[in-house]
Design a protein that fits this description.
Keywords: Methyltransferase, Transferase. This is SAM-dependent methyltransferase. The protein is an alpha/beta fold and about 300 residues long. It has nine helices and eight strands. The chain has one domain: 3-Layer(aba) Sandwich (Rossmann fold), CATH 3.40.50. α1 packs across α8 and α2 packs across α3.
């Protein structure tokens, strides 16, 4: 199901968002809540990064959304300055408010503008540049990675969160409709994601071999690690709300790819008055994997 760009990125495609038709300010609360749900996953990913990125002076979150992960960076690296970069000023307002609440505002700043060009406005090169599911919204991913790499200090690390596994939140057989609904929804979402990519300005088709693309950008020492979010049934209120919001967000996109029976099942899952809905079922869970790829600019 669609997940925030941290996120949502970013309700995160499994976490795909179309910047062209989405009101990011309106989705701010959903993006923030989703990223908070995934906080344990991000904390493990940042802990992994901290083992190889020692005492960074400047950390840039490229595509920060409402700043949940950017503030986790401030917590993980207490000596670093953090710059949250995003195309949505309303989301950056949320990021600044979060930094204030968490007591890190003195070393937290924001930069509004479109990636990758806005990175040219950074005053200093980054020791760590984090791009979580923001790269796939840029038409020419290879050129964007080169631009990201150019903003690194010598010895600086680029950390890219792309790929992983789409979310699962229901058993294969849910007792209504035809078994395997979520796999069919995933196939529709994959097709939608391909169309979203193809329709981006300056789209260039690219094999999604992220370590190879990082190496092509002149970076060395590529590493890859995946992190699991495992929230078993029965789901917490927050996890259940994420699942409902994710399927609701996808509902209109499913009309082209699912048959009438599947659409009727989706509508039952979203109907709070239906005993079989996501709002009431005891078997709702969240299981998802995010993958991080890192590489280093030669010193």
């Amino acid at each position: 199901m669609a997940h925030q760009h941290d996120h949502d990125h970013e309700p995160e495609r499994g976490h795909h968002h179309d910047h062209t038709d989405m009101d990011w300010a309106e989705m701010g609360h959903m993006l923030e809540s989703s990223a908070e749900l995934f906080a344990s996953l991000y904390e493990r990913a940042l802990g992994w990064l901290a083992k190889e990125v020692t005492e960074p002076g400047l950390i840039v979150d490229a595509g920060s959304g409402p700043g949940v992960v950017a503030c986790l960076f401030a917590e993980t690296f207490p000596g670093a300055r953090i710059v949250a970069v995003d195309g949505s000023e309303p989301l950056l307002e949320r990021a600044r408010a979060r930094a204030e609440r968490q007591g890190v505002a003195d070393r937290f700043s924001t930069l509004a503008g479109q990636l990758p060009h806005v990175l040219g406005e950074l005053e200093y090169p980054a020791d760590l540049l984090w791009a979580s599911r923001s790269l796939h919204h840029l038409g020419d991913q290879r050129a964007a990675l080169a631009a990201f790499a150019a903003r690194l200090a010598p010895g600086g690390t680029l950390a890219l969160m792309e790929g992983g596994l789409p979310a699962r939140f229901l058993p294969r057989d849910i007792g209504i409709g035809r078994p395997g609904l979520q796999a069919r929804i995933g196939a529709v979402e994959s097709e939608w994601f391909t169309r979203m990519r193809t329709d981006l300005p300056g789209h260039v088709a690219e094999t999604e071999d992220w370590p190879a693309l990082l190496a092509a950008a002149g970076l060395k020492h590529t590493r890859t690690h995946s992190f699991l979010l495992d929230l078993p049934a029965p789901a917490s209120d927050r996890a259940r709300a994420y699942v409902v919001a994710s399927l609701s967000h996808m509902r209109d996109k499913l009309t082209e790819g699912l048959d009438a029976e599947d659409l009727a099942t989706v509508d039952r899952l979203l109907d709070p008055d239906d005993e079989a809905s996501l709002h009431r079922r005891p078997d709702v869970f969240v299981l998802e994997a995010h993958t991080v790829h890192t590489a280093v600019r030669p010193a």
